Amino acid sequence: MAEKKWYNVFVSVEDEGKKAESQGGEVPPVSKPTVEEPELEQPVARVGEEMPSFEAIFQAFGIKEPSHGFTVYRAEELLKSVHLKNATPEIKRSALMVALEALRIPPEEVVQDAVRRDKALTQFEKIEERRLRELEQKKSEENKRLQEEMERIFNEIREKMEENNNIIKEAREKFHSWQEDKEKEEQRLSSVLQFFVSQENIAPSQQSTGRRRRANPPSEE
């Protein structure tokens, strides 16, 4: 069931007028307004910008004050005046009708002003909801692409890091292998050099190499 707007509770003046006569002449209610759906005449704030004021929305939908200037907001001011703020709803309503009659303003025009504004707000809400859905869909698709791009870049970086680690590992293994070969070469040199110089003249590195191999001295021919 569609939402029942506040202005749909209005009934015809003729039917209620008869009831009012039988109940002591109470002021009959205003007739149900017939107002077409307003159309957007100029752009209003887009999604992501500051939301516009209600007045800006009314202007965008071409809602203008009547020539007599008595809008629904003017009626609100009257009802909130110091003379009526503590009055009963019946007294407020009677005072409002008397004021409109004195100004020769049909009550229906005030009601229509309120209905037009309400419909404009509803129309704007639908427009913004549609734009919001479009924005959500657009940004969700963009986030999906960014996620895929991030995963692709992450995989590339991870592969590059693994490649770098493998290069480091290979270089370290080669260096350690060379160090072992170097030690063997130093031992080879030291094994011959010891027959030409005294131990005091052997370089520290050669002495340390000789000490490491003292347990297995080279055999003499």
Q: Helix and strand layout, with pairings?
A:
Elements lengths: L12 H10 L31 H7 L11 H8 L9 H14 L4 H87 L10 H9 L9
Helix pairs in contact: 5-6
SSE class: mainly alpha
Number of helices: 6
Strand % is under 5%
Radius of gyration: 47 Å
- Report helical residue fraction: 55-70%
What is the number of independent domains?
Answer: 2
Q: How is the main sheet built?
A: none
Low-confidence stretches: 9-25
Distance between the termini: 115 Å
The residue-averaged pLDDT reads 81
Number of strands: 0
What is the element string, with H for helices and E for strands?
A: HHHHHH
What is the overall silhouette? rod-shaped
How would you explain this protein's 3D organization?
The chain is mostly helical. It has two domains: 8-31 and 50-136, no CATH class; 153-212. The protein is built from six helices and no strands. α5 (107-193) packs across α6. The longest helix has 87 residues, at 107-193. The termini are far apart. 8% of the residues are buried.
Short key terms for the protein model shown above:
single chain; 221 residues; 6 helices; mainly alpha
Concise overview:
With about 220 residues, the chain is an all-alpha fold. The chain has helices spanning about 15-20, 55-60, 70-80, 90-100, 105-195, 205-210.
